[in-house]
Every structure is written in structure tokens, then in C-alpha cells.
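Protein modeling request. Please complete all fields; requests missing the sequence field cannot be processed.
Requester role: graduate student
Desired output: 3D structure, C-alpha cell encoding
Chains: 1
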Amino acid sequence: DQSDDIAQAGATPLVLDVEKADVDEMADAFSGADAVVWSAGAGGGSAERTYAVDRDAAQRAVDAAAKAGVRRFVMVSWIGSTPDHGIDPDDSFFAYADAKLAADDHLRASELDWTILGPGTLTLDPPTGRITTAPQGKGEVSRADVAAVVAATLVQPATIGRFIRFGAGETLIAEAIVDRTTGEDA
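Delivered output (186 residues):
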């Protein structure tokens, strides 16, 4: 559905069913890329589909990037992706929390130049170009600012090997992502 928007932005869209694509198909898709940014998600629904996309497909993408020789990998995760996330196994959100943590851990264990981004609750607010890596509450942040953080991360080597949690804030994105005093848990 977003192919036209991608083409208008100057990129070449590639449609791939990540639920079904194996490592070889993903590696072919990634071939020649400078980086992989994983921001795919099941978008709620069944726990089975959440695990299929947010864990299994994400893990295959990590393996495919390595196979394709794409060293840089940025994973868009969530602010609470830690072993002590506190989500009860009976909560419908547990599958998401569990799947994201498994994917993040798989990436951490790889030999790729990885960064894990942990935005808070996503909003449709206009971008501000500013975030905080010490968010309060749900750490709400606009989708546009998350995209800007991804773009800034790709060109900032100081983000490699880091898990950066963030929400809307007052610090310019380029400054916030290199600040190692708050918001990270590698």
C-alpha cells in the first residue's frame, strides 16, 4: 500500500512477505544494501502472528543481513524491551514484549554493527526533531521523529552496539543519540 509513497520519495520499493520469506529470500532482497532497518511489525492481533513477524521474521532478517554481507542493522523495538519488562504472561501484550526481546537478543548476539531503538508509544503528532533518552511514563513520540532517529542513527557510528530508549523531548535528535548518560541498556 505504501509503494507509491516510497517511489515518490526517490527509493525503489520492494514488496516481500516477511512472514513467509526465508533467510535466502531476505538475503537476496538485502543484497547490495548499505544497511537494514527492521521496523516491520504484526500490528497486534493474534499472538501467533506477532511471534511470526516480531520475533521469527526479525531473527531471519538478522541472519539474512549477515548472509548478504550487510553489516549495519538498526532494529526498531520498543521502550520496554528488557527481560524485566513486567508484562504478565496472561496480558495480550505479552506476546509482543516477548517477541521483541527475543529479536533484540538475537541481534545483540550477532556480529553485525547493530543498534536497537526503543521508542515509546507512537503518535501521529507532527515531528519536532527533538527527543529525550530519559522519557517519563509511556515515552510518547511521533512516528515522524522515530523515522528521524532511524536516519540519524544510520550515520552516527557512536550508536553501534547500543539500545537507545527515547520519547519526545527537548534535545536535538543528533545530540540525544550520542548521549551515553541516559536511556540505554546494551
